Amino acid sequence: MIQVVGHKNPDSDSICSALVGAALLKARGVEAKAVRQGEINRETQHILQTAGVDQPEMCTGVAGEKVWLVDYTDLAQAPDDIAEAEIVGIVDHHRLGDVMTVNPLEAWIWPVGCTCTIMFNLFKMENVEITRELATLMMSAILSDTVGFASPTCTQKDKDAVAELAPLAGVEDLDLFIKELLIAKTDIQGLSAAELVEKDLKAYPFKERNVVVGQIELATLEQVEDMIAELEADLQRRCDEEGLAMAALMLTDITTSTTRLLYKGEWNEVLDAYAKDGMLMMENTLSRKKQGWPWLQQVLA
Ligand SMILES: [Mn+2]
């Protein structure tokens, strides 16, 4: 049995690629199951509902198990007992993290916009049938990760995959499909400051310290206007409780690609130099991976 597991604080790609990866393994005749490392977000709920697919089981530990990692290769994002598991496969589209394996493994790491784009190509290479459910999961994950093709992480391979998947998923009006997905993506109504920070928080080891950078994708920055102080207080609390050098949160308006950065921690002053009237605005910044985090690394280095 291979457990296919996406990263902590699962986003839609992390859940969809676990489900799709388990289906690929099963088509090969291998026993596999998709698992998740946390609660699914509203966008993922919308996707699973559209696809008519149940969410993966909660991961209760992987010690002694064989695992596939999907959508990450950083140990900080893996199950806590990953050192006692055997990583036999990786499908990912991020920079290579710090995983090490004992035995040879199957690794598919491509610089594309979404793990599901790689999954789609694996299905094609292996001539595995793509059902309506699987097509819906894959195209939704691709459109989520690339923010409807708008992200600089989006590649031609991502667009090609969606072009082939849409008819398989029975989607006739792609613009409407994207619109509904992005409405679910930016729905933050009723979430507390702590829930918002936690929603898509990633840990990055940096200069021998720990840094976390979260991101909230919004239809307008006004959605969080009244919560700035609470969000900053939550970032400070995380620094205090977890000894982080920095906790940052990207508030990203996906309609204008404008990001406001909130940040707390020991490295505050470095970033203050880039703020104006107490606000650090990052123009033309939609992607944490390609824009937000690289900029932060350069400034903090
Ligand atoms: Mn992804």
Automatic annotation (TrEMBL):
> Which InterPro entries does this chain map to?
DDH_dom (IPR001667), DHH_sf (IPR038763), DHHA2 (IPR004097), DHHA2_dom_sf (IPR038222)
Sorted UniProt keywords: Hydrolase, Manganese, Metal-binding
Looking up SMART domains in the UniProt record yields:
DHHA2
Reported EC number(s) for this entry are 3.6.1.1
Its cofactor is:
Mn(2+)
Q: What is this protein called?
A: inorganic diphosphatase
Q: What is this enzyme's class at the first EC digit?
A: hydrolase
